[in-house]
Design goal:
It comes from Sphingobium algorifonticola. Belongs to the bacterial ring-hydroxylating dioxygenase beta subunit family. Helices cover 27% and strands 42% of the residues. By secondary structure, the protein is of the alpha+beta class. It has a single domain, classed as Nuclear Transport Factor 2, Chain: A. The chain starts with a helix and ends in a 13-residue tail after the last strand.
Length: 163
Amino acid sequence: MPDNFELNRIAQLYASYERAINQREFEAWVDLFSSEPYYRITARENFEKNLPLSTLVLSSKGMMKDRAYGITQTIFHDPYHQRNITGLPFVSSVEDSASGKGRLVQCEANFSAFRTKLDKLSEVFCVGRYFDEIVEEDGALKFAKRVCVIDSEMIPNAIIYPI
């Protein structure tokens, strides 16, 4: 298992992710992923039954950059603020990565996302769990894989910002 220094680095990666989304720094969000990332948002039922249907899948750095560009430049929607809150990550395993470059850390954490439209009260947008694989690239921890499992199949409106 990771020592306290490694646990602190993992917690800092999670905090940086949360900050990037909350501050709408979507290029910084992309930078938190490895060179070969996988990002998926799916319903809990599909995840538990190992079904492939997903709300969103981004399977390359280019797809993530396109999403960040779309959020800031091309997607039009009612303005709102999104606030993500993430619990402390639980490290479930640490092993040598298949590539032979460092270790692969598997973690999970609970999250909640709130949405506030400018003229309305805040509402719970979604809650769920992250299932993550973290690797080290160029001295920094990065998400190689992030699966966002939403507890409910129903979400209000559309997912614009990352979860």
